[in-house]
Predict the structure.
Amino acid sequence: MLVATQTLEPYFQEVLQVLTENKSQPVFPVEKFKWHAAHALIMAAQGDRETAKDQAIRALDVAKANHSGFRYHPTVGLVGSNYEALRDRLLALSGAYC
């Protein structure tokens, strides 16, 4: 997230590799949100608008989750009302997806 949000371009390829290698690792909605958000921001910075839009939409979809998927801990790891500035950036990338 640091590399993506701070647009640290020299590290983009390494981060994309780590994201790709760990695509199945995020478990909680907030982890999935961050994974897609980082991918969206990096793709946008590299000029790949279609992938950035797709990843932004996915991140925003995950942010809407109101259940973690865990029976005994339904609210653990939700995005909730956090990451307002990041959500605004993702909304812009998504073409104002709602």
